[in-house]
Every structure is written in structure tokens, then in C-alpha cells.
Amino acid sequence: MAIKYKYCRIQGKELAANTRVGKGIFSMLHQMVTNGVLDEEDESLYHELELWFADELPWPPQCMRQEKVICYFKTENSEMMMKMINPLLWLLEKYNHPYYVVYTNFPGEVVYEDEYQIAVKVDENVVIEDLQESWSPKDLIT
Question: Considering only CA atoms, which of 15, 9, 8, 11 is closest in space to residue 99?
Fold first, then answer.
């Protein structure tokens, strides 16, 4: 039985200053453009895709105000969005920019929702636990 996930987020290793969470795919690529990392053709591709998303995907007001929120795509009805994300993933890979694809059913407190995405408050209550005793088989520990 496969687990069905409701939400998907693509994020990088670098943390956003306001959220302390991995930057989303658009923030990563925008920074790469700002830093002059992409060649002219790839930068044009990015801008073309960015315009498509700007036309098709509403901007959550919380994101416009740069509040402490992160966004996830809804998996149930974002097939076209994910298809359009693929060239952006290709750009990240072409320039060896690491990223993670995060699937979840528990994104946090939803503060915005539309047909394709949600924005959730960043949970600032990070819990750091002590290192627990190893549960691996004793004969495998060297």
C-alpha cells in the first residue's frame, strides 16, 4: 500500500533569513539569477517559467509581506504545476544546486489556501532531544 501525500515542497539547503527554513525553489533560482550564476539562455528560461507561474498561481499575501510562512503545492490537483516545475529542477541540477523534495500530510498551521497551494506558519518551537542509545544490533557495532 502506497502512502498518499497531500502536499509537496521543493526546498534547498540554504535557509531563508526570515523563516530559518530551506528556501523554496523560486527563491533559490531567483538568488541564482541575482548572483549571475545562470547563463543567458537559462536565465531566459527561468524568467519565462516565472511569468507562467505568476499568471497561473496566486501569490499568498503572507508571502508578499515576507511573513514567516512556507508554501507547499497540493498534490491532488497540481499535476500541471509539477510538470512546469520540472524545467526548474533541471536548472538546479544543471548548476549542481542541491535541493530536497518534501512530501507531507502534516505541513503545519495553514494560513492561506487556494486551488493549488497552501502557506503555513513556520513552527519556531524546535525541540532538540538528547542523543538516544543505539538500537542497532550489538554485534554490528565495531
Answer: 11
